[in-house]
Amino acid sequence: MTIVLCEELNTNLRIALMSDATHPSAKNPHKLSITKSYMLAVSIVAIAAMASYGYIHLHLEAAKKSGYIINISGQQRMLSQRIALFSSKIAAEPKSEHSPSYAVELRHVIDNMAENHQELLNDLETRPKSSLLTQFYYNEPRNLDARMKRFLSNAKVFLNTYEESSTGLGEPQIHQEAFESIINEANAPLLRDLNAAVAQYESEAEAAVINFSRTELGIMLLALFMLLLEVLFIFRPLTKRVEDQIIDLRNLNMQLKEAQINLEHKVLARTADLQKAKIA
Fold this sequence. Notes:
Elements: H1 2-21, H2 28-92, H3 99-124, H4 132-138, H5 144-166, H6 176-187, H7 189-279
């Protein structure tokens, strides 16, 4: 009888396990689906993070370049005044012992201003042809490119004339026409338009910061929207699936307990029958 009861218990266990194994939540494709779900969620977050980092990195590089260009443009105003200052000192006292040192300083300032101007022109090549800065430098009435080159040319003529005449035995000479042109440009027209160019550089940089702030807000809202979609279409179904599997396991446990109780009842009943049979 014991052997029969054990076989019955094994049969009940097999039936319970087979019924659980045939449940959809116990199939292997579900496990693969769970893995794919969280891998998809992690991949989306990783891609969004890398895209956000890339955009912010590009903006920071553009901001650095913009700050550098604004600094270079601002230097041009100061350099134009230094050219006028050293030219005036040389023209006022060409025979002074300090004039040669002024000439050295003037040469340095001219070279610095020419290098800055070339850098500004290189930057303009990266901007649209219709931009206000491009019009400042290439179109009338400002036409800063032509005027800067003329200003630097007059400064070089003035300096070369002084240095060449100073090397001989004669008196140092001043190129009066070049000197007057330098003073006239530096005192008002050129300085005014250089100020306008710096203001335009700053205005465009501020506009870029505002655009970045708006884009940053858009990125944040997009990230929140993506998280919402992940919750609705990935994590929520994933949680439901895990909960269903937990319920299935609990049901299986209850079925096993019921089978054990039923088996115990049968054992007791059969034991009682056997005892009655012995007494009879």
